[in-house]
Amino acid sequence: MTKRAYALDALRGYAIITMVLSATVAWNSLPGWMYHAQTPPPDRAFDASLSGITWVDLVFPFFLFAMGAAFPFSIKKRFEKGDTKLRLVYEAIKRGVQLTFFAIFIQHFYPHVLSNPQDMRGWLLAILCFVILFPMFIRIPLKMPDWMRIAIKVVAYGIAIVLLQTTQYANGRVFDVSFSNIIILLLANMAVFGSVIYIFTMQSLRARVGVLLILMALLLSGQVENSWAQAIYNYTPLPWAFHFEYLQYLFIVIPGSIAGEYLMDWLKQHNDSFVESTNKWKAIVMILLTLAIIIVNLAGLYTHCTVLNLIINIPLLISGVFLLRKGTGFIKLWRELFTAGAFLVILGLCFEPFQGGIKKDPATFGYLFLTSGLAFMALLLLNVICDYFRCVKSTRFLVMPGQNPMMAYVVGDLLIMPLVNLLGIASLLVYFNENAWMGFLRGVVLTTLSVLITMFFTRIKCFWRT
User: Fold this and answer.
1) How far is CA 179 from CA 121, 122, 405, 444, in A?
2) Which residues contact 121 (CB under 8 A, 6 or more apart)?
3) Dist CA 25 CA 444 (whole Å)
4) Cα 373 to chain center, whole Å?
């Protein structure tokens, strides 16, 4: 078994795949729980008064959690190999800048932004955008001097900037640096602030938790009129790139970093005897238990049965803690993940009445804590499947997109849909709007194509990296 936590790749892959799926299913003909809880069908208008979550509301938190869980593998390892903290901060800022550019570039080259109605010019430009992203973000496998690698990237960025400035957009739109993909922009902010916090607290969990407590105080005090905390909350040197409220997602990223440390410690000690000494019935029970906790919270909060949901959660969480109270190896890892997840789930449910119920937007503390807890459960679930039972082949469709998430995120909009339109078969998608089942099948088909293309590039070692 290689020294890699496949569960982490699978969690990231699950988040990306469901992100694509939720964006490609029929727009308004499916049940309400198939969309964000705050944008119900049939009109899909955003309603901030609606509380509760659906599986779609777990997609982004799970990806943020996976980002944080990768910090120990990308940051702590480099620090242990001799990189200075200053060097690591520089790399974090560079990554944030690259992701911000990525967010701006792709947003300007979605076909519906380029032309309305969409036409051949828009589809070809979208494909060109997809092609240019390769030299910008891949690590070229060919042997060449470092200066040549840098030159290729500089040229790619230069072409992208020229295209952004000279392209004619639909509806009189012009290039605007503030017009960006909000999902990627939030990830860029978390890549910078989450990494910097981890860099200076990687050797002290207490300090990391302390930073979150201070952040919570600022986020809450920032709502007080005419206070110094509100001045901090409202200040932004770059309104198109950063707002203080973005930092609320650190309550998902930082717990993710703790999960990553659990995984790293487990990998350092891992050997086959751990697998043999672990009772398989416990592994099966943990699959069922973690899955039950996730489903119960989704159903209970979506239907607003909050008291019943809490009552059901308590015995489920206690049984998991009791089941994993002793053991080493996998059991120790599962105990750490489950205990942290159980604490955050209960914390999130205790915050549920606060801020008008658990909501994704604006994100409430109940939402942030609960989704972090459910992410711990999902990581545990996937660790059992991917790393304990070693279901490598059957989970490859999750793991491989998880190793290439940037490509998986845009391949549908910048390659598949433009090609479908250029080939003249886009009109066939209309038939998927006949009923809810066909509407869901539409999303499955388009998501499957995105997964297959991403898997192909991953298999040939063509990764997009910042």
Assistant:
1) 21, 18, 22, 29
2) 114, 115
3) 7
4) 15
Q: Report CA-CA distances (Å) from 34 to 22, 53, 54, 177, 387.
A: 8, 10, 7, 32, 30
3-class secondary structure per residue, 313-329:
HHHHHHHHHHHCCCCCC
Tokens, residue 97: 């800048």
pLDDT tens for 263-306 read 999 998 876 666 666 789 999 999 999 999 999 999 999 999 99
How confident is the model at residue 5, as a pLDDT?
86
Q: Which residues, at least 6 apart from 408, have a Cβ–Cβ distance to it below 8 Å?
A: 13, 16, 17, 20, 401, 450, 451, 454
Q: How confident is the model at residue 428 (pLDDT cuts 50, 70, 90)?
A: confident
* 138 bridge partner residues: 464
Q: How far apart are CA 200 and CA 203, in angstroms?
A: 8
pLDDT at 1: 39
- Give the pLDDT confidence of 252-261 residue by residue, as tens digits: 999 999 999 9
Does residue 216 surpass a pLDDT of 70? yes
First to last CA, the chain: 28
Residue given tokens 């978390």 in the structure block: 190
Q: Which amino acid does the sequence have at 354?
A: F
